[in-house]
Amino acid sequence: MQALISGFLRVMLGLAGLVAVLTVVQLALDDVERAADRAMDAAAEGRRPPAWFGLRADLVCVEPLDKETPVVNGPVPTTHPVLSFQPSGDTVWLWDPDPARGEETERHALRVRAEDVALVGARGKHC
Which residues lie closer than 8 Å to 78 by C-beta, 6 or more apart? Predict the structure, then answer.
């Protein structure tokens, strides 16, 4: 009987630990979502968003250097500012705050080759 109780306690402690871990993960994901919403709102208002855990975005205007600029999730917005994150190698990651891109935030992410565009610091809502 004592072995049964001991086994039951181990299972309950394991489940309680799992619930605690999942709760922390959920809280962290909620914090990430709120930070993304704040960044989206700031960029849409023409303001540079605050840093989040060292991740710093710049509000920039994109100037394509050629007529045809290959962009993942394009086209490149040229009439309003976007957020630019630090380039990684020859790739520049941009995030377009335009609500016309839809509710799915991954549709707002753009990837472009650094050699295809010039990024100019932006102030306000228009480029």
Answer: 61, 62, 63, 64, 127
Q: What is the pTM of this model?
A: 0.65
Euclidean distance between CA atoms 100 and 52, whole angstroms:
25
The encoded tokens of residue 49 equal 């968003």
pLDDT digit string, tens, across residues 1-17:
777 778 888 888 898 99
Q: Is 88 left (phi over 0), alpha (psi -120 to 50) or beta?
A: beta
CA 110 to the chain's CA centroid: 11
